[in-house]
Design goal:
- This protein is mainly α.
- The chain has 13 helices and five strands.
- It folds into two domains: about 1-175, no CATH class; about 180-275, no CATH class.
- The strands form two sheets. A three-stranded antiparallel beta sheet has the order 1-2-3, with no helix packed on it.
- Helix 11 runs antiparallel to helix 13.
- It is elongated and about 80 Å long.
- The two termini are about 35 Å apart.
């Protein structure tokens, strides 16, 4: 893995000498995403407080909720309501991030609006344990107040990682939007992975002996899968299954079961089709 201070890029170098570049999410963009998430959580907490007040008024009809809380004279029903309220506060504040980062592939509503995404250091999507760890440590990042410790740590490291990211082995990057296969081709060439020369074309013909079986529809599906994977909309497992299916159809060797090998294979198939099969 290499680093680029000026362009704020995070680069993953694979054993196949192919580089995947991610633009680091800066403190400003992360602040915007965090502000949106905080506003949503704040609204949810406000609604929760309203519900709590109504419940406490019901279970403390004779005393009134304010008097009951001020005198410490809360009925058993009010005590249960307060316990549930405290639990819901924790679940809401902590679970909000965990839930959305899991179901939205590393994004919360705020991150999605700011076009950010949490990924692992190797470029894979953040898993359940990664998401849980980074958000549990969020409570430490918040100390002493208003993310004071977290912002300090982010400011003094080039990848703007907070303590939660260090603990979970994650990084927040800018989400890729509107990636075309042609752009992937340029990236691959700059990484010295594709050379459209007669020698390379001969290698493709040998590597994909049944390339003519690939239809235009297959090619469109392949291109869409690459774009959607870069945008975090499909999992690495789905990408590998597609690579395995195409390898069988084209009479090619199946790629190794990891996302980098599958992505390289699919990009090679797409470029070979553009050059030889279309």
């Amino acid at each position: 893995m290499t680093e680029n201070w000026l362009q704020e890029e995070y680069t993953i170098d694979t054993p196949e000498n192919v580089s995947f570049r991610y633009e680091i999410a800066g403190i400003g963009s992360r602040f915007l995403g965090g502000l949106i998430d905080s506003a949503i959580i704040g609204l949810a907490l406000l609604l929760l407080n309203i519900v709590l007040a109504v419940v406490l008024e019901i279970v403390n009809v004779d005393d009134g909720v304010v008097a009951a809380l001020g005198n410490g004279d809360v009925t058993w029903g009010g005590g249960i309501a307060l316990a549930i309220y405290t639990l819901l506060n924790f679940v809401l504040i902590w679970g909000y991030y965990v839930l959305f980062e899991l179901i939205w592939n590393g994004q919360t509503p705020g991150k999605r609006r700011a076009q950010l995404r949490v990924v692992r250091l190797n470029g894979n999507p953040a898993g359940f344990l990664d998401v849980v760890i980074r958000n549990l440590v969020r409570m430490v990042d918040f100390l002493p107040t208003a993310y004071g410790l977290g912002l300090t740590v982010m400011f003094f490291n080039r990848h703007a990682r907070r303590l939660g990211d260090y603990a979970a082995g994650t990084i927040v990057v800018k989400d890729r939007q509107g990636i075309a296969l042609e752009n992937l081709d340029d990236t691959r060439r700059s990484a010295q992975a594709i050379y459209v020369t007669p020698e390379v074309q001969a290698q493709w013909q040998q590597r994909f002996p049944a390339l003519r079986r690939l239809s235009a529809t297959d090619y469109d599906l392949l291109r869409a899968a690459l774009v959607r994977h870069d945008q975090g909309m499909i999992t690495s497992d789905m990408l590998h299954r597609l690579a395995a299916a195409l390898a069988h159809k084209l009479g090619a060797l199946r790629p190794d079961p990891n996302w980098q090998a599958s992505r390289i294979f699919l990009t090679d198939v797409a470029e070979a089709y553009r050059q030889l099969g279309s």
